[in-house]
Amino acid sequence: MQRTNYGMLKTLLLGIITFGIYPLVIYCRMTDDVNLVCRKDGKHTMHYALLFFLVGPITLGIADLVWNNNICARMHNQLEKDKIDYNFGAGTFWGWGFFGALIIVGPFIFMHKRFKAMNLLNDKFNKKEAKRERREELEDIEDE
Length: 144
Description:
There is one protein chain. The chain is mainly alpha-helical and 144 residues long. It has one domain. Helix content is 73%, strand content 0%. It has 6 helices and no strands. The protein has helices spanning 8-17, 21-37, 48-58, 62-81, 90-98, 106-143. α1 packs across α2 (21-37), α3 (48-58) packs antiparallel against α4 (62-81) and α5 packs antiparallel against α6.
């Protein structure tokens, strides 16, 4: 079961208490979630820890922008594929996460929207997996 309880307030508060470790763990989990939920698109998102500790500093933060753009685009494509009516994508990152920083609250709005999109995708994934497991159980019963 994929987690469906990502939350902005919890991440911010626990990030303060843990000196930034909790958000790092959350973003690493989200990378794994996106790679699992969007696995049929044939793409693979770089693990956030690799980006945070190695690639981001080497590229002076440019890789962070590319990574965020790409992961948001993957999430957008999966939202559309799963017919989930929620407006989120690369434009959300650039609008709220990047340029929204000029009005200070933009990155917080982006974080909320990203977590909500991930929760929706994970919930849909969990329902599909439960349905698949039930179907397999019925096939096993029929085979007996």
